[in-house]
Amino acid sequence: MENIRLNVSLLRRRVPNLTSVAKSVGLRPATVSNLCTGKIPVGRAEVRTLVALADLAGCSLDDLIIRGEKVEMIETKIKVVDLFAPLTKGGTNGLVARPGMGQLVLLAELFHRLKKDGFTTMLLNSEGNHPEVNDISNEIDIITNSIEESYEKSLALGNSKDIAFAADRSHVLSGKIQELQEKLDNVGIHSVTTFLVDLSGEVVDEDLPFGPLETLWQFDADLAARHKFPAINPVYSTSSVLEGAHLDQQHLSIQQRAQKLLRRYRELRSLVNVRGTDRLPESELLTFQRGVRLEAYLTQPFYVAEQFSGKKGESVSLSDTLEDVRKILDGSFDTVQVDSLSYIGSLR
């Protein structure tokens, strides 16, 4: 199958207000978002949808669709991220959460890990008063106060240094992020991996909260309430890396099996909360119990939270995550106590 995907960066530059514009021409913002992240492969999209997007961007279909170019994944060694919604190098990655769901902790942890891998971390100060951002300042190499300053700092580093850059949604709404990305693209700087957060929490009510994204991490209120961190929803989070042509087939197979199990587990959990497990058929009980174990395994101690959690941070390679999840799916840990799977590294 030909390796094709949407030119997300072009869409981002040309149509900054894509949510409202998409609705005005009869496109569902959720469909556009899923096409950008790869949840819906471009090859399965309706022709009229692609033509409408090309018209909005003022480009040809050839410009809109990228062929033969692989999306590069950054292995974070965070289990739930690498398995369900891998980080795209050089792409724009959005965190969708309300305050208190742990998005800034995840951002701090990502920056901590990326710095170890040689990235320079940069934060564009948010508009308004958000003292909670101070909690991640230890993981920031460069703090800027304007788009112009962010551009100058990025230009000085050039392509010789990978940059992890974070900004609040207020800069997206003003169009400043699109302006920065276009300026960097025009001078040939493609080494910036962007993280977008929303400190107000309003982002969860939007269909296309940050415009086109390569990776979307949707946080889950239920996971956060039950202290299952990182509270990333494994069903609704997605990444353009997950397109079949970009991803190792073993990874794709295990990811799809795990997502199917967790989707059904979440449905059963609602029933169990009301009626208990006694009335579940044996096959459904097995699904529920494996879902409980997989959910527990996907929790992980973070390095940046060691002084608060009392647990040493853990890194788990993608290969170990895939093998561990496969064993849980196949029933190798059916008799293991759930608590022993919570907040650990790998099962090896």
Automatic annotation (TrEMBL):
Pfam families: ATP-synt_VA_C (PF22919), HTH_26 (PF13443). Its main location: membrane. Residues 5-66 form the HTH cro/C1-type domain. Residues 246-321 form the ATP synthase A/B type C-terminal domain. Transmembrane segments: none annotated. It is found in: Membrane. This is F-type H+-transporting ATPase subunit beta. The lineage of its organism: Bacteria, Bacillati, Bacillota, Bacilli, Bacillales.
